[in-house]
TrEMBL record, chain A:
InterPro entries: ExbD
Coiled-coil regions listed: none
Family: Belongs to the ExbD/TolR family.
The entry's keywords: Cell membrane, Membrane, Protein transport, Transmembrane, Transmembrane helix, Transport
Keyword Heme: no
GO BP terms in the entry: protein transport
Pfam families the UniProt entry points to: ExbD
Membrane-related topology note: Single-pass membrane protein; Single-pass type II membrane protein
Protein name according to UniProt: Biopolymer transporter ExbD
Chief site of localization: membrane
Subcellular location: Cell membrane
From TrEMBL, chain B:
Signal sequence bounds: none
GO molecular function annotation: transmembrane transporter activity
Keyword Protein transport among record annotations: yes
Taxonomic lineage of the native organism: Bacteria, Pseudomonadati, Bacteroidota, Flavobacteriia, Flavobacteriales
Species of provenance: Gelidibacter maritimus
Pfam family, any one: ExbD
Protein name: Biopolymer transporter ExbD
């Protein structure tokens, strides 16, 4: 049989076709944001439980008004100072006796919080408050907790909490995961996130 | 007398474009893989605020999205300029959240229901009043795990 070589296909327009597809995907792509601040809403309980009595000095009130101004502990405050103020409040450790806080490094002011377990941040916003401001405030308050937790984790174990959590999630991490979880839990218990929102 | 200059020897040869399709294909595959087609079309403005203490949301199939924001210009004639809630593809009211949560829960396997998270994608210019109402509604439905979806960035960019 006579062998006929097939004519070669011209591949010169391949690039054009690929460009066309590329541009289509470029236009339709929306890389979704899937990061954010995780929160847990308090459940609605129907039983009428007497709310525990909390001393005024253990509450750190943050109020955002309709004009996006911040009122912290009855004083006007700039957003950039909020993180430091929250850290100072949480880390105060002014308690004595059973309520003393052995790991706090704050000023031990008797007028501020007893220990991080007792300290509660109360966040109140008005209906006119802008969501962007609200998120900024939430972010700063979470940052205050994270800062204290990281400091404590560095003191105890020489790494930050973030790193420990990353290791805990990492499948390839070599080490005792149960011990690591205990360490993470300990730091979280020493600086519990007590952020209450007023409805 | 037009006379063409003879090409100087030593001039650079033309760059071969034979590998151009390969490069383009590489880019193409990247975008094909990275693309997630939106399953809902946004009808509200959705400029997310910035935050830096963020956590990553994993398990994308276990997330319910609630969008809040001003209706986009095309819908402003019909729905006004006040912030609205969008569930799936439609504008919704507060009362619709109950049904929305129930249907999302019904569509997931039973053992996965406790892990469902509500992602609140709220425009940064929305008012907290509506967001608080939505949160209250979620509490009633016992959907307590929420996530304020934000972009990664410094909070000074929120204004």
């Amino acid at each position: 049989m006579a062998k006929r070589s097939a004519p070669e296909v011209n591949a010169g327009s391949m690039a054009d076709i690929a460009f066309l597809l590329l541009i289509f995907f470029l236009v339709t792509t929306t890389i979704e944001t899937d990061t954010g601040l995780n929160r847990r809403l308090p459940p609605i309980d129907d039983q009428e439980v007497e709310p525990p009595i909390i001393r005024q000095k253990n509450i750190f009130t943050v109020l955002i008004n309709g004009k996006n101004q911040l009122m912290v502990e009855d004083e006007l405050m700039e957003l950039k100072d909020l993180r430091q103020a929250a850290v100072e409040f949480l880390d105060n450790g002014g308690g004595t006796g059973e309520e003393a806080c052995s790991y706090c490094q704050g000023k031990k002011d008797p007028k501020s919080s007893d220990n991080p377990d007792k300290a509660i941040i109360s966040l109140k916003n008005e209906r006119e408050t802008k969501y962007g401001t609200y998120i900024s405030v939430q972010n700063e308050l979470v940052a205050a907790y994270n800062q204290l937790r990281d400091r404590r984790a560095t003191e105890l174990y020489g790494t930050t909490l973030k790193e420990m959590e990353a290791n805990y999630k990492d499948v390839n991490w070599i080490g005792n995961k149960d011990a690591l979880k205990e360490k993470i839990e300990r730091v979280k218990i020493e600086y519990p996130q007590k952020l209450s929102e007023v409805q | 007398m037009a006379k063409f200059n003879k090409k100087k020897s030593g001039e650079l040869p033309a760059i071969s474009t034979a590998s151009l399709p390969d490069i383009v294909f590489m880019l193409l595959f990247f975008f094909m893989v990275a693309t997630t087609m939106r399953d809902t079309t946004l009808k509200v403005e959705n400029k997310l605020p910035y935050a830096d203490q963020i956590e990553k949301l994993d398990k994308k199939d276990l997330i319910m999205y609630i969008y809040i924001g001003k209706p986009q210009e095309a819908f402003q004639g019909q729905f006004g300029t006040e912030s609205r809630i969008q569930l799936n593809d439609k504008f919704a009211d507060l009362v619709d959240i109950k049904a929305f949560i129930a249907s999302e829960r019904a569509s997931k396997r039973e053992e996965l229901v406790p892990f469902l998270t509500v992602a609140l994608k709220v425009d940064e210019n929305a008012n907290m009043g509506l967001v608080s109402d939505v949160k209250q509604e979620l509490r009633k439905e016992n959907a307590l795990k929420i996530n304020y979806t934000t972009k990664k960035g410094d909070i000074s960019e929120n204004r």
